[in-house]
Amino acid sequence: MVIKVTAGADAPERCNQAFTVAAAAVASGVPVSLWLTGESSWFGVPGRAKEFTLPHATPLADLLDVVLTGGRVTVCTQCAARREIGPDDLIEGVRIAGAPTFVEEVLGEGVQALVY
To answer: Which domain of life is it from (predicted)?
Structure first.
């Protein structure tokens, strides 16, 4: 399952839904690739997910930890560049990749893509 998050703290419920679905899928044994784009790109940087709060929701940092243990997390190349985020700025296990990689993952056999 490929999940693309386009929202960050600017749309907290939409952002949290994506992380919740990704973590639930990982916990269910589903292969997950979580793409952080736009303002969600910041959650690939250490400490940023801990700053995110949403009442009655599992902490974003906890959801991200679940995804990192059993899935893949990617920050969009262009989104990272616009925010001056480089590979050395990211949480261990998070990578930077672009549209060709996203398309390759989405076109994989049996893959479903969700965009939030």
So the answer is: Bacteria
CATH number for the domain formed by residue range(s) 2-115:
3.40.1260.10
User: Structure pTM?
Assistant: 0.94
Sequence spans of domains, the chain: 2-115
CA–centroid distance for 89 within its chain: 15
* Residue showing tokens 């793409």: 35
58: left (phi over 0), alpha (psi -120 to 50) or beta: beta
Query: Count of CB atoms within 10 A of residue 107's CB?
Result: 10
Predicted confidence (pLDDT) per residue in 84-99, tens digit = 999 999 999 999 999 9
Q: What is the mean pLDDT of the chain?
A: 95
